[in-house]
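User:
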Amino acid sequence: PLEFTASAIVVGFWNTPETMPKGAIIAIYLVFIIFLNLFGARGYAEFEFFAMSLKMLTLIGFILCGVIIDCGGVSGTSYMGASAWHHPGAFNNSFKGFCSVLTTAAFAFSGTEIVALAAAESSEPRKQLPRACKLVVYRVLIFYTLALFIVTLLVRSDTPALHGDNSYDPNTSPFVIAIQNAGIHVLPDILNAIIAISAISVANSSVYAGSRMIHALAVQGKAPKVFKYVDRTGRPLMAVLFTLLFGLLGFLIYVKNEAEVFSWLLSISGLSVVFTWATTCLGHIRFRAAWAKQGRSVEELPWTSPLGVYGSYIGLIFNVLVIMAQFYVSAFP
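Assistant: Predicted structure:
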């Protein structure tokens, strides 16, 4: 529902409620996601390959374009360098301001854990899973961190357009603002379209991950038995249907204060990601302890984490600190 709501907001960059109601946009997206999931893991994988390729090419293009803009290579612009980091400066609103955006950042970084879920339906998990895990590091460094760093060079923290008319204004995307400030036409529309496709990509991944988790819980006896059903093509249909029903919450966009609904959905999703990562780290710690208790060696494992069990201890501690920070900013906003 968060991704459907976000998509409807993004489409508002071109559309007005009078032209096409936001509910109609959400309904179109919901039908599209249902259609994709009729093809099971193959439908998910094919669309994700297309969407991910599009996002990667877009981000590489944005990074190159951003460097040119920052160096004053676009007509009508001058050299900017790191001036936005000094005037008005980065990390405004002190430590509390930093803490207030941690759940949003966590949500934006979510999705890497789906690699493990997809392994169950992979043809060569022992070969593909280690390769996919290694690529995650490069994905985070290049496509997340570097792209965001370029944005901070191009858009000052006090830019009025970042706030827009309200907290769900589709014109407040810093990526789009960076291009618009440089006076480049058409490109902001293309960038916004890619953002809309990205939102649908995340929604598709969410249905895939949610349904597989529910099915796994049912197999372990920790969820109703009805979700154990798998059809002849390997699709956990009842679990998929149950997960898709949550998409109907996207129609909450019609409530009086839709910004608050979006904020709640984002906060719930972001915090759930932090809890997921924390328990994943804890699960790895306990697994390695149990493995050693059985007298087994690490060499027997088909693949091991580069940072070993110590990396999981660090990850667990940091995730707990993020949760504590959220309590802090919630109690004293």
